[in-house]
Prior knowledge:
By secondary structure, this protein is α/β, with parallel strands linked by helices. It has helices at 14-45, 62-95, 210-224, and strands at residues 102-109, 112-117, 130-133, 135-139, 144-150, 155-159, 164-168, 174-178, 184-190, 202-208, 233-235.
Amino acid sequence: MILSWLPQDISTFGPSIDSVLKLIIYVVGTAFVLAEGTLLVFIILYRRREGGRAAFVRGESLRQLAWVLIPVVIVAFLDVAIDIQARPVWELVKEESPAPALTVKLAALQFGWEFTYPGADGRFGTPEELVQTTFLTVPAGQVIRLVMTSKDVIHSFYVPQLRLRQDIIPGREISAWFEATQPGKYEIGCSQLCGISHFAMKGILRVLTPEDYQKWVSQQRSKSGAGAGKSASRVRSSAAGKEG
Length: 244
């Protein structure tokens, strides 16, 4: 119930990320209620009264220091507990990428997205590779690897439904992976302020069934004539225009 306000989860590692988020919300929420409740009680109990005098507490005795030291120990313990819980999730998402069924090169630029698909032989830099702007089309139920670069400034690839966010830094090639479970269309956003038109840097993740994805690939190659001696296909589209 507490996470019902989150966007729909369509990622295989989404539940793991949500479990860590739920733990953080419970821990921080409980600490907030206790801290603010204690503050409220003290405000009422030790409010200013006629004839009362404030006492100056130096905090030198162990009993007085306990009011600071005990909360510090509790917070440190909870922080370590969260880190222990989150470590396997970090390894799953960032360090243990499974073998991909499809690798797509992603280039971020002010203010759009460019996606390059390998040719039929699985290689890049051939006349058969496909290039799309704005629309990232992938099959459901298959591991997708993104190899991300930036052509100008720092950007950040963000799809809330995938529970995936990855900064893209100029001069570096950064990889990320995901496996979408449900066909549909989902918004891609840039979550780093990247310039005056940052707000317009939107894309669409289009998840198709494996059968529909193969049909889409065949249609794109047929339209572009890839593999018939032409240069690499550049199937361009925009979020507000016709889909490629």
